Amino acid sequence: MKDMFKFVDKKKMILVFILSIIQSAAAYVVSFCFSYFATSPLTIDKLYNLLITLFIIYVISLIINWLFIHFSQMFLFKIEYDAKNYFYKKLQTIVPQNLTKYHSGYIQSIIERSSQDYAIIIENIIYDYIPLIIGIISFVYMACTQSLVLGIICTSIFILSFIIRYFMQIERHKEKKAMNEARAAYNGTLIDFIQNIFTVIKLNAEKFTNQKLIEKENNFLKELQVNENKTANIHMIFNMFSYSVYIVVIIFCIQMLKSGQDALPYLVFYIGVVGRVTNNLATCSKRIENIFSFKINKKQLDEVIGNNEELLATNRWKEIKITDGKFSYKDRSKEIKFPNFSILKGDKISVMGESGQGKTTILNILSGTYSLKSGKLLFDNKELKNKRPDVVYISQNVELFDMSIRDNLTLGKNISEKKLIEMFEDAGLKEWYDGLENGLDEIVGEKGIKLSAGQRQRLNIIRGILIDKDVYFFDEPTSALDKESEEKIVNMIDKYLKDKTYIVVTHRDSIKRLCNKHYIFKDYTMNIVE
């Protein structure tokens, strides 16, 4: 929780807290005024004085309330979005293996809930906890000035009701994880189907997907019902304690009347304050749920991201080796072997073999996505922890951002339109580009859905070249291209990356001519081709 305060505007938070304290105090001052002016006998002068006093308080409250809303609402909105940005930055350090365990919709759902819960916690402090503290201080002050016993009894009831509700909430939240997981599972499945809606339509899979959603929904509702039953029990017990305060106050006033004292001022004060304090107490104890919910969601998010030490990209190497390397996936029995792999600065390496043998795996190991099960990954004959070569990894699974062509290609770098058009020409995309209504500002759609597979693949290669690193990994860079387009890409790689180091995973012989070293996978073993 402490790390969450790093991005909070501390000065603005203090200002909002101060305004909340003043606004809450003004509300309780009204009760003090009624109590003060309600003493017997009630005269016109007292009512005039009460009217003037309330008018002054009212004007001050209006001003404070305007300032409070003006600052607090923007402050709370900013906190929520800053929290989302914070979690997104943390997500960038995710343990790569976890990407295969969790659906993006599930991760998105947790980030959304965690950010909202965090903003709600701060909101609760401002709108609920501060007014509660001011209210209890006001009540205890008035009670103790009249009767220390009354003050102790009422304070004890307040504290006891809060503590009981607190521990009941803890007990409830131990079981809330199942409900959160069921809700996240539903949201993840829904987002998955939405993202693949065209596939659902093409396969006529409407009945299947609808049924799956109903199953997920029913599972969530089942867990929700269990939690709601516990919530009802919590409310019932808390209300029993809350109403007992009224009974204590009325008994005290009866005793005052019996002893000949004027009980009306205190009854007016207590009834007004007790109701407000009780409501605040109920709200605050209920708001504890947000704290537990935040902790649960953040813990789940930490589990998703994993405890990953940051991999440091380095270009300070002359040779990278894998010796006696072995790797295996949990869902397959075959072990992939890398007896002796070597890449020197300036090498251009092709990696070939049948599908599923381990070609992409070698790129994932070298890029730090996966770790060897056994064997050594050496940088200049040294086994360095948390190191990976500083590379551009051009995957065959192309996913463009739902932004303009310019943004997708330049990633914020200042690259001239002339340079981009030249690369379009080299990649065989010039005719397509000339037909675009908005040119480089054309939006490509989610994951580049407005483009063909071949257009996406060529734009992906152009994007990678423009990143301009010393080392490139290509995973089937021409898999979606015909021979003519493939030839253009081969020439493009030769033109722009002649002085670079690269590894190309491919089934195509045309790319092999660019390479000086060749490896092939056979029987899940990687060997050099002499």
Broad structural category? alpha/beta
Mean pLDDT over the full residue set: 83
Helices and strands, in N-to-C order? Answer: HHHHHHHHEEEEHEEEHHHHEHEHEE
Query: What global shape is seen?
Result: elongated
What is the percent of helical residues? 55-70%
- Percent range for β-strand residues: 5-15%
Number of strands: 11
Number of helices: 15
Low-pLDDT parts are none
Query: What summary fits the major beta sheet?
Result: 6 strands, mixed
Radius of gyration: 34 Å
Going across the biggest sheet, name each strand in turn. Answer: 7-8-9-4-10-11
Report on this structure.
- It contains 15 helices and 11 strands.
- With 530 residues, the protein is an alpha/beta fold.
- The protein is elongated, with a radius of gyration of 34 Å.
- The model has no long low-confidence stretch (mean pLDDT 83).
Please give a handful of descriptors for the protein shown:
three-stranded antiparallel β-sheet, single chain, alpha/beta
Write the layout of secondary structure elements.
Blueprint: H1 10-37, H2 44-91, H3 104-146, H4 148-174, H5 176-195, H6 197-202, H7 206-258, H8 264-305, E1 312-314, E2 319-327, E3 336-344, E4 348-353, H9 359-366, E5 374-379, E6 387-389, E7 391-394, H10 405-410, H11 417-427, H12 430-434, H13 453-467, E8 471-475, H14 483-496, E9 501-505, H15 509-512, E10 517-522, E11 525-528
Parallel strand pairs: 1-6, 4-9, 4-10, 7-8, 8-9
Antiparallel strand pairs: 2-3, 2-5, 10-11
Helix pairs in contact: 1-2, 1-3, 1-8, 2-3, 3-4, 3-5, 3-8, 4-7, 4-8, 5-7, 7-8
